Recover the amino acids of this structure.
């Protein structure tokens, strides 16, 4: 009897830009697995029906991207701790017949820093720029690694304050004007905003106040070298780009769906970088 190929997917609206099929397709080929990973463009009002039909469609699970992460959080039967805290689901799978949801963004963020800046989790003060959904995942990852002083900076202070209220202490909210003062004792600076994406000009951010041992990371990966990372590099600071977060967050889902834990290798990174450069 022929082996039935395992099917997984990424759903979003739009979803044509997603690099997830490239990542998972590479791993499927690398491990010789009979399976597929496809894009599914699902409009917001069609998401509940799409999720109800997953099992009947032969899917073992999949990924959820913008704008469906919060809706998927509400629609699944069970959520892991990260998804509960972050309030969003990006990975779906079946367990005992139930559709389960998890969030691997925090894992991906931490694993990327583990690879690019070993020892980053030694503590100290973290400053996070932005207060959107990505910031929730970053703050969760920071708290999991023992950071107890996390400054959340946003142009709209009320949004930073709302994020602070979601966490168990150790966080504080600040307006953008506070950045120069906050940087003076920052050990890890994280940009979670869309500033600098696709070559867009980034608001001026003077990094002169950062300690020389500070690490600067940007979750944006298009372009790989954002204005923030370029400014940090000119100062001789350690930098970590955002591509590794995308690659590492994909690992847990692939393992759940296809039964093999894949590795994020230099070759995989080269493949995705080449694809990004095609669109640059």
């Amino acid at each position: 009897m022929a082996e039935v190929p395992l099917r997984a997917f990424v759903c979003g609206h739009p979803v044509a830009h997603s690099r997830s099929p490239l990542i998972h397709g590479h791993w499927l080929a690398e491990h010789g697995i009979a399976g597929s990973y496809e894009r599914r463009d699902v409009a917001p009002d069609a998401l509940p029906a799409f999720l109800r039909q997953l099992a009947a469609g032969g899917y073992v699970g999949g990924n959820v991207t913008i704008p469906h992460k919060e809706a998927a959080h509400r629609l699944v039967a069970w959520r892991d701790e990260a998804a509960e805290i972050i309030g969003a689901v990006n990975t779906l799978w079946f367990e005992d017949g139930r559709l389960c949801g998890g969030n691997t963004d925090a894992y991906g963020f931490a694993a990327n820093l583990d690879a690019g800046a070993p020892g980053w989790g030694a503590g100290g003060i973290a400053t996070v720029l932005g207060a959107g959904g990505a910031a929730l995942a970053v703050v969760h990852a920071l708290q999991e690694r023992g950071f107890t002083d996390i400054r959340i900076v946003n142009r709209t202070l009320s949004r930073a304050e709302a994020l602070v209220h979601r966490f168990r202490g150790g966080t504080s909210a600040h307006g953008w004007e506070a950045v120069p003062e906050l940087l003076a004792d920052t050990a890890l600076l994280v940009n979670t905003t869309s500033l600098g994406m696709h070559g867009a000009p980034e608001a001026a951010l003077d990094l002169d106040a950062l300690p020389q041992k500070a690490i600067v990371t940007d979750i944006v990966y298009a372009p790989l070298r954002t204005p923030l990372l370029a400014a940090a590099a000119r100062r001789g600071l350690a930098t970590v780009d955002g591509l590794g977060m995308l690659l590492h967050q994909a690992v847990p889902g692939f393992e759940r769906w296809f039964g093999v834990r894949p590795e994020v290798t230099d070759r995989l990174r080269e493949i995705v970088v080449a694809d990004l450069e095609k669109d640059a």
About this structure: Residues 6-103+249-279 form a domain with the Rossmann fold fold (CATH 3.40.50.10860). Residues 183 and 210 are 5 Å apart (CA to CA). The longest strand covers residues 6-12.
